[in-house]
Amino acid sequence: MAERKKEGMAPPALGGSSLLVAFAVLALTVFALLSLSTVRADVRLADASAQAVTDYYAADCQAQAVLAYLRTGETVPGAFPEDLVIQITFTEYVDRPGERVDAYAIPISDTQELQVEVVWHGAGYDYEILRWQAVPVGEWEPDDHLNVWGGEEE
User: Fold this and answer.
1) Considering only CA atoms, which of 58, 56, 46, 67 is closest in space to residue 112?
2) Taking the complete model, does pTM exceed 0.70, yes or no?
3) CA 131, CA 117: separation in Å to the nearest integer?
4) CA–CA dist 11, 81 (Å, integer)
5) Phi, psi for residue 42 in degrees, rounded to 5
6) Residue 121: helix, strand or coil by DSSP?
7) pLDDT tens track for 77-134
């Protein structure tokens, strides 16, 4: 009787389940690699964003220092701290006598600078900030080249 039970039992089917397990392992490996590359890209983006914010606020702090020097009446560029590398331009309003505009730019990065314009009303400490803006520097060169297929093999 024991011999009969051995002959009647079929071996377990391993082909289908093995394929299913192999596919599941492959799919999980691909998803893990995609997740890893996404995390690396997010870390690079977060680092670049943090650096951009740090650079902006460093330039903002320097611009505030320049404004503080200008508020005390210091208008000579040599009077500013040595770490401030700026170019200050002074212009007079033609239509409003007695008002002066000071304009200066603080570099943020290789591609941006913080431009500031302040108008001074009279000889006192009364001033108005006309511009406090991060702007791109350098020349913009558009890409006019369109790679369009002309209908013929090259």
Assistant:
1) 56
2) no
3) 5
4) 87
5) -65, -35
6) strand
7) 555 555 555 556 555 555 566 777 888 888 899 889 999 988 888 766 788 899 999 9
Contact 81, 62 (CB under 8 A): no
Cα–Cα distance measured from residue 66 to residue 76, given in angstroms and rounded to the nearest whole number: 11
Tokens of 42: 């997010």
Tokens 């002074």 sit on residue: 90
Question: Tens digit of pLDDT for each residue in 30-49?
Answer: 999 999 999 999 999 999 99
Residue 6 exposure: Cα atoms within 13 Å on the Cβ side: 3
The DSSP-derived string for the chain is -HHHHHHHPPPP--HHHHHHHHHHHHHHHHHHHHHHHHHHHHHHHHHHHHHHHHHHHHHHHHHHHHHHHHHTT---GGGS-TT---EEEEEE-SSSTTEEEEEEEEE-SSSEEEEEEEEEETTSS-EEEEEEEEEE-S------------SS--
Q: Give the integer Cα–Cα distance in Å for 34 and 25.
A: 14
**The token pair that represents 92 in the structure block:** 């007079």
Distance from CA of residue 149 to its chain's centroid?
A: 35
